[in-house]
Write a structure and sequence with these properties.
Helices cover about 30% and strands about 30% of the residues. The chain is built from 5 helices and 10 strands; from the N terminus they run βββααβαβαβββαββ.
Length: about 210
C-alpha cells in the first residue's frame, strides 16, 4: 500500500494498493489527490520500473498500460483533481477497468445544485473524464447503507457507504468539531474503505471534512 498525498498525519488524499492477479499486476487507486503531479508521477515511475525489471523496451514498452480500478471516497477537488485533470486522460499509460463511486449527496440545502456541494462540480468533471478518456471503465455506484466488495486474489477491499445523506445536522457537525477542534459550515458523506488482506483488516480513513 503506497500513500501518495499525505498533508497531515490525520488523513491521506490518495493511495494505491498493488497486488498480483492471474492477469498480472492490478492496482486499486483510492482517490487521486491534487493536480500537483504526485500521484501521476508515482504511477509513471511504477510503470517504468515494471518495464525495466521485465526488460521490455521499444514498441512493446509503448503498448504497456497499468491496469487500474478507481475508488472515490468523496468528490472534493483535493481528492479528484489529479484524476480528471491528469491520470484519466493518459490512456496511453493507464487502463481503467472499473470506478467505484459514493452515493450522490444533496448536502446543506437539500438540493443537488448547492454551490458548496462538491458533487455538483467534481463528480461531473470526473464522470466527463471517464466517459471521454476511459469509456471502457464500468461504473459501480454505492447507495446509502450499502457496502461494496472489491475482490482481489489476496483478499478484498470493502467500501462502506454512510447509512443516510447526512447533509447538515447537529450530530454530524458535533462529530467534526470534536475530531478537528473547530466548526465547519457543511459536511458530506464519505465512502470508507476497509482493506482485508490475508486476513488482516485495515480501515483506510481519508477525511471527515
Amino acid at each position: 500500500i503506497t500513500f501518495l498525498e499525505v498533508r497531515d498525519p490525520e488523513k491521506s488524499d490518495a493511495f494505491f494498493i498493488m497486488y498480483l492477479s492471474e492477469k498480472g499486476l492490478d492496482i486499486i487507486l483510492h482517490d487521486g489527490g491534487m493536480d500537483d503531479h504526485k500521484t501521476y508521477e508515482a504511477l509513471l515511475d511504477l510503470r517504468s520500473e515494471i518495464l525495466e525489471k521485465a526488460g521490455v523496451t521499444g514498441d512493446e514498452a509503448k503498448k504497456y498500460k497499468l491496469r487500474l480500478r478507481s475508488v472515490i471516497s468523496h468528490f472534493h477537488g483535493d481528492h479528484t483533481y489529479a484524476l480528471d485533470g491528469q491520470i484519466l486522460r493518459m490512456k496511453q499509460y493507464f487502463h481503467f477497468t472499473e470506478a467505484y463511486l459514493p452515493p450522490i449527496t444533496s448536502l446543506v440545502t437539500g438540493v443537488y445544485d448547492d454551490d458548496s456541494n462538491g458533487d455538483r462540480w467534481e463528480r461531473v468533471r470526473y464522470m466527463n473524464a471517464i466517459e471521454t478518456f476511459q469509456p471502457q471503465a464500468k461504473i459501480r455506484l454505492l447507495e446509502y447503507g450499502e457496502s461494496l466488495v472489491i475482490p482481489t486474489d489476496i483478499g478484498e477491499v470493502r467500501l462502506f457507504a454512510p447509512p443516510v445523506d447526512w447533509g447538515e445536522n447537529d450530530e454530524r457537525l458535533k462529530m467534526f468539531e470534536v475530531f478537528y477542534g473547530y466548526k465547519r459550515a457543511y459536511v458530506r458523506p464519505e465512502a470508507i474503505p476497509i482493506c482485508v488482506i490475508n486476513g488482516n483488516s485495515m480501515c483506510m480513513r481519508v477525511s471527515l471534512s
